Amino acid sequence: MLKIENLHASVDGKEILKGIDLEINAGEVHAIMGPNGSGKSTLSNVLAGRPGYDVTEGAVHYNDKNLLELSPEERAWEGIFLAFQYPVEIPGVNNVYLLKAGLNAIRKHRGESELDAMDFMSIIREKMKLVDMDESLVRRSVNEGFSGGEKKRNEIFQMAVLEPKLAILDETDSGLDIDALKVVAGGVNKLRSKERAIVMITHYQRLLDYIEPDAVHVLADGRIVKTGDKSLALELEKRGYDWVLEETRV
Amino acid sequence: MTQPIKMLRDAAWQVYEQTGLPTTRNEDWKYTDLSRLTAVLGETWWTPSHAADLDKETVEEQSIPELDAYRLIFINGRFQEDMPNLPEGVSVVPLSTLLVSDADKAAKALEMDEKTPLFNGAIAVNTAMASDGACICIADGVKLDKPLYLLHVATSGGASHIRHGIWMGRGATAHVIEHYVGNSTDAGLTHNVTLVHLDEAATLYHDRLQLEAEKQFHLGRVDVKQLRNSRFVSHSLALGAALSRVDIAVSLSGVNASCVLNGLYLIGGRQHADHHTRIDHASPDCTSQETYKGVLSGRAHAVFNGKVVVHEGADGTDAKQSNGNLLLSDHAEVDTKPELEIYADEVKCAHGATVGQLDLEQLFYLQSRGLDKTSAKNVLTFAFADDALTQMISAPVRRYLERAALKRLPQGDELQEMV
Amino acid sequence: MAKNTQVEALVKQEYEAGFVTDIEADTVPPGLNEDVIRLISAKKHEPEWMTEWRLAAYRHWLTMSEPKWAHVNYEPVDYQSISYYSAPKSNDDAPQSLDEVDPKLLETYKKLGIPLHEQAMLAGVAVDAVFDSVSVATTFKKKLAEAGVIFCPMSEAVEKHPDLVRQYLGSVVPTTDNFFASLNSAVFTDGSFVYIPKGVRCPMELSTYFRINASNTGQFERTLIIADEDSYVSYLEGCTAPMRDENQLHAAVVELVALENAQIKYATVQNWYPGDENGVGGIYNFVTKRGACRGKHSRISWTQVETGSAITWKYPSCILIGDDSVGEFYSVALTNNYQQADTGTKMVHIGKNTKSTIISKGISAGHGQQSYRGLVKVLKGAENARNYSQCDSLLLGKTCGAHTFPYIEVKNPTAQIEHEATTSKIGDDQLFYCMQRGISEEDAVSMIVNGFCKDVFAELPMEFAVEAGKLLAVSLEGAVG
Fold first, then answer.
1. Is there a domain that residue B293 lies in?
2. Domain CATH code at residue A117
């Protein structure tokens, strides 16, 4: 589904990603871990097409398309979803309205009919249960006045509604207490499917206690320096990142 | 008088003859009627006051207590020969001396730009008539260890036309206090213009404390040019005078310059206090922050006008402004107008103005802790006013002002321990 | 904005077609003097007092000069080159069916979701000959008559209800009020008159739109609405589509009077021709609108969506005389290309416990210049007056301007006045967020702008709010990217 080849990217002229190679297939859950400043968030932003992130080398293939050629919304239409590390507040723009407009644009792109208000609301209600989302939050302006946990929960709720093919969760666990983490992880688990790939970007291992990954990658200084299975994450938890860095420093 | 100075003076006087004093038909003077000035002082309101001596005791009485500073004393607008020993890199020359010894420098101190915002005929009179003042030069990189304290005492009627100039070199830092007081029982006029020039990365803390005697008129103006990375922190207070008007115009004309304009007017009786500020964001990435507070009792009338202009290309501007007013009596009046004029889009600008009463929840909280309602109100009123002083850097100055403020508040004596 | 050029082309075409042929007899030559005013008055069969009223206004106007304080720039208007009276357009001049109307204009109507027969009316098609609107209007009039509501052209009111007109006309906006109001008083040709009797809740939203001759009331429109004790009326002015209009200068006057316990809601959606993308042409919209809350517990709300006109100069105001009366002002103003708007409100608190709310949302794009100018005045006797003002500006682009000039004058210590203003632009992160969710940039901007205006749209009748939203999107076309 997603094939990243020798991806180099820079922000403000400073190279952050220095040659990433990664392949992810439908149905897989990958965790990308790494110390602060290793380039984790840059990777997720490059995949989602955030302006200001310049790809200087390499390629990203996504279902036989050149992902880097697509605009952010086209990527969304193609089924890419980014759960933001810092969900932004948009006063005056209603959550439900945003999702309806987004979902219908995606459906239209897929050649499906647009949903009317009734059908859409029944989807909303169904998905609200998935992440234990409060109706009052759903009806409010996007993230406005939400607590940190509410914002993160709202991100997963949006993911549930938009049903992406490739979901990138950027530090979705940060700032969550253990109960909120369980709810969010539960939501993500319910959204796992054979057709869907999930990339979790995280600093800590604890999210992986609740969402079991098929592969774990360690990102350091803009490169993937080690790949393993769930046990790698546990080892990182015990020993920190330093040993990986030393081991890979040739 | 030397020839160039005479020409400058004559030209300025002509400007005054043509424009006269501003009237309430002038938008910037809509709420302040200077006919009150001419009614009391007459058409020749500008007639200079007489020189006077002041005994040491009175000077100490009028000074800010516990303030360790380089003090310059002006009696009725005239510098008293008592120049403190200044550190190296700091030069203070009285304008009266410069007028005789260095016409070029004196002309620079008397500069007047008719195109400057808020220009009016009174400024022209100041240029035509200013006879003294402090011309302060701080050399590059010099950080003044103590404040420069300019104490102005009016002892009789007549007008004092004072012109100060402050030139700060690159990276220089100083704190200048202009303090206006008086013990005259006659009506007179204090008329001051201060020119400030801040070179790159210079920092000036400027306190302008107006606590004139009750019949005095007071016209003041501070004109500030700021170059890149410079910082200007101003506190302007109006507690005295029958009628006062202070204009502060700041031009942020270098990248990353910043200014803080804070002020407090606390007046009663038939006092009238008008503050006009104008901040021109003429360069990118400049910051301005303004907080003015007003507390009015009796038949006092206060005017606040804060204008922020963000010029084309001044991207990265961050301008915040707020003006809060409390009316304590049925006959007090306030006119406030916070203005924004914006011609750039990468800006963060916000302003707010309030006229109102104390926060009822806070009031209840204090009452529930045992304060009677009146005391609780006074505590909150003081706290409201004091908010304008929190960024002052000199503790003795702040203490002096807080005591003066409390004296003017109902039951203020009981609250002295708050200071 | 190609469609506007098209509108202009259409307008010009009609103008030429209309005036060259048979108008001479019914058009007064350009220029203004007492004879012209007498002639206007005579043509409208007005009584003597009305003629004198106009003449007094005219004589005062002669002593006045055009106001210069607004933050707008324009070529001076030559008041002697305007023709102050022409008979209502004959239907022969208008397009006979929608087929004759410019397709670009129709496309805009379609975008706004305007029904077919309304499109025809807006495009100036001789509606009553083609569609069944007369019967609509008739049913409508019958229903109002049953309720005792008077809703008629101003000229008809002068004839049929002279006592009401004489009592209230000019009582809120005196003939000497300002330059444009005086001019209007001297030369107004028509407008709407509304009277809601005691205790009556007007059974429907009143709209100039329903009055067949409404789109031709001309450049000096005069509207007077009186809500008697315990009555209620909601009035909609204008329409949500580009108006067919060839007048350069519009100087309308609107007066509202609310007596005890009465409520008037007045909504305007103004989308006159704004000039082309180079700032050529467009309407000068210099309007005086004022309401007097005369009775206790009376309430006047102004809601406006201003997206048209080259220049807008307009301050719908409330004089809160009655105790416990309420004044409200909700405004969305959008300036694009070279449009200029200087708009806001005055809230004058005179009675006790009077309340006012001001919500102003300004959007500036292109070379648009926009000013909020407002006055909140609390007089000595206005115990417990309350005002809350919020003025937000949104800037789209580097060449536009947004300005705020709020005057606050308070003479009573029990007043509580709050004014807040912010200026912002659409955040890149907000745009990206929407785009990441699959929404195109233009739609995202329009969505965020609509969100920005939400508080004001909430005050509009439902169907108006929807169209106002669409109108913003159409007006913003070309402002993004």
1. yes
2. 3.40.50.300
Report if residue B258 sits inside a domain.
yes
Count Cβ atoms within 10 A of the Cβ of residue C142 and give its class: 0-12 exposed, 13-18 middle, 19 or more buried: exposed
pLDDT number for residue C392: 93
pLDDT one-digit tens code per residue, A119-173: 999 999 999 988 888 888 888 888 888 988 899 999 999 999 999 999 999 999 8
Cβ contact, residue pair B327, C415, below 8 Å? yes
Work out how many domains chain C is built from and give that number: 1
List Cα–Cα distances, C319 to B339, C50, C193, C257, C312, in angstroms.
24, 25, 20, 10, 22
**What is the total count of domains within chain B?**
1
* Nearest CB neighbour to C402, from listed B31, B329, B342: B342
pLDDT in the model for residue B368? 60
| Residue C69 located in a structural domain | yes
Residue B105 lies in a domain: yes
Each residue of C276-304: pLDDT tens digit? 777 777 788 889 999 999 999 999 999 99
Question: Cα angle vertex B122, ends B113, B95, to 5°?
Answer: 70
What residues contact residue A97 under an 8 Å CB cut-off, 6+ apart? C447
- Helices A95-109 and A117-130: crossing angle in degrees, nearest 10, is 110
Quick check: is C83 in a domain? yes
Task: Determine, yes or no, domain membership for C426.
Answer: yes
Domain membership of residue B411 (yes or no) is: no
Walking along chain A (250 residues) 10 residues at a time, the average pLDDT comes out as: 96 94 95 91 92 93 94 89 87 78 87 89 90 86 87 92 94 87 91 95 88 93 92 86 76
- Residues B197-253 have pLDDT tens digits of 999 999 999 999 999 999 999 999 999 999 999 999 999 999 999 999 999 999 999
- Give the domain range for residue B316: 3-358
Q: Write down the ipTM of this complex.
A: 0.86
Beta bridge partners of A223: A220
Instruction: Point out the residue among A76, A97, A141 whose CB comes nearest to the CB of C438.
Output: A76
Nearest CA in chain B to C368: B343
Domain housing A206: 2-249
Q: C-chain residues within 8 Å CB-CB of A82?
A: 436
Q: Is B343 on the interface with C (CB under 8 A)?
A: yes
Relative to beta strand B317-327, strand A141-142 is: unpaired
What's the number of CA atoms in the CB half-sphere (13 Å) around residue B182?
30
SS3 B198: strand
Rounded CA-CA distance C145/C203 in Å is: 10
- Count of domains forming chain A: 1
Residue the block writes with tokens 């969100």: C451
**Residue that has been written with the tokens 């995202």 in this structure:** C444
Backbone angles phi, psi at A211, to 5 degrees: -120, 110
pLDDT at C189: 79
* Range C77-83 contact pairs with CB under 8 angstroms and sequence separation of 24 or more: C77/C248, C77/C249, C77/C284, C79/C32, C79/C183, C80/C30, C80/C31, C80/C32, C81/C30, C81/C31, C82/C30, C82/C32, C82/C219, C82/C249, C83/C27, C83/C28, C83/C29, C83/C30
3-state secondary structure of C98: helix
d(CA B151, CA C363): 49
Please name the chains neighbouring C, where neighbouring means 3+ C-beta pairs under 8 angstroms: A, B
Question: What DSSP designation does C122 have?
Answer: H
Chain B with chain C: Cβ pairs closer than 8 A: 107
The span from the first CA to the last CA of chain A, in angstroms, equals 32
Residue C31 lies in a domain: yes
The pLDDT confidence band at residue C120, using thresholds 50, 70 and 90, is low
Element (H, E) at C223: strand C222-227
Q: Are strands B78-79 and B70-75 parallel, antiparallel or unpaired?
A: antiparallel
> CA nearest C446 in A: which residue?
A93
Task: Give the range of the structural domain holding residue C207, as residue numbers without chain letter.
Answer: 2-476
Q: Count of CB atoms within 10 A of residue B381's CB?
A: 22
